[in-house]
Amino acid sequence: MISLYTAVGKFERRTNNNGQYPVVIVNGKESMVDIPEMMIWACLNWRILELPQIESLYNQMARDTGVNEQVGCEVYMERLIQRGLIVSGIGDSGNDALYDLLSNLYITPVTSRLFVKVMAFLKFIFINGVPFSKAKTVFHGDKLSDDEKRVVDLAKQTQLSTAELIKCVENGIYDLSNENKVMSALYDDDTTTCDNISYYAKNCGKQKSVLETVANLYLQKMIIFERI
Q1: Across the beta sheet with 160-161, what order do the strands follow?
Q2: Which of 105, 130, 182, 222 is 20 to 30 A from 195 (CA-CA)?
Q3: Which residue blocks in the chain are alpha helix, DSSP H?
Q4: Tens digit of pLDDT for each residue in 181-201?
Q5: With the C-alpha atoms ordered 182, 186, 190, 191, is the resulting torsion angle positive or negative?
Q6: Cα separation of 10 and 32, whole Å?
Q7: Buried b (16+ CB within 10 A) or exposed e, 147-157
Q8: How wide is the angle at C-alpha 46 spanned by C-alphas 44 and 49, nearest 5°?
Q9: pLDDT at 73
Q10: Could you tell me the pLDDT band of residue 127, with boundaries at 50, 70 and 90?
Q11: Neighbours of 95 (CB within 10 A)
Q12: Which residues pair with 4 in a beta bridge?
């Protein structure tokens, strides 16, 4: 069996009288995390990894930051899973494990990438002294394929799980501009519900291609995953 893991939500800093502290926000709910938990969440943010890879990244980060924890990585991972801040998927094959991991996660396109890239570009030029010809490469790599554009466009119209995206692509759906169109596209029969759509979508002809597209967008930091 193959087990895969990733992070959900987004990281933000909060400030109180004692200084700054990290939180992870999932579906609008803030969860405070301690340093080891934050390190593991950061290892999995925009990554899809197996346990040995997570442990390797975590141990390297602990050495680099001087964090000396007696508790193993798996203990913190279990806490994060229980709190819904990281998720896991299992399967007999890589595709099955990836589908189990992503099918019920909701897709949120990242909208602030241009600002982040502009700031990185200015930092390279004026602080790090990187030549313009090299600094401008920070703007490369965001050209989307037709499949990626399709997924992002659908996800911008309404919040969709990976399984729901698969059904939309399978059925040639482009317009989800109101609730009636969403319900008609996704739940137009007597059997499909939000609880079982991942079961039906797994057998769709477009399952593998949409799954790979969603995973690629995530690894390119174009989307984040949410839980509802």
Answers
A1: 160-161, 106-109, 223-226
A2: 222
A3: 35-44, 51-65, 73-82, 94-102, 113-126, 132-135, 146-157, 162-170, 179-186, 197-201, 207-219
A4: 999 989 988 898 989 999 999
A5: negative
A6: 12
A7: bbebbbebbeb
A8: 45
A9: 86
A10: low
A11: 15
A12: 89
Using CA atoms, how far apart are residues 94 and 99, in angstroms rounded to an integer? 9
Rounded Cα gap, residues 129 and 26, in angstroms = 38
Mean pLDDT of 156-182: 94
pLDDT for res 65 = 77
Give the DSSP letter string of 96-143: HHHHHHHTTPEEEE---HHHHHHHHHHHHHHTS---HHHHGGGG-S-P
- Structural tokens at position 19: 């200084």
* The two structure tokens encoding residue 171: 């059925």
Question: Is the torsion defined by CA of 45, 50, 51, 55 positive or negative?
Answer: negative
- Supply angle C-alpha 138, 144, 146, rounded to 5: 170
Type of residue found at 22: P
pTM of the model: 0.84
- Tokens representing 50 are 């197996």
CA distance 86 to 55: 14
Tokens of 52: 């040995």
Query: Is the model's pLDDT at 20 over the cut of 60?
Result: yes
pLDDT of residue 164: 96
In which band, very low, low, confident or very high, does the pLDDT at 63 lie, cut at 50, 70 and 90? Answer: confident
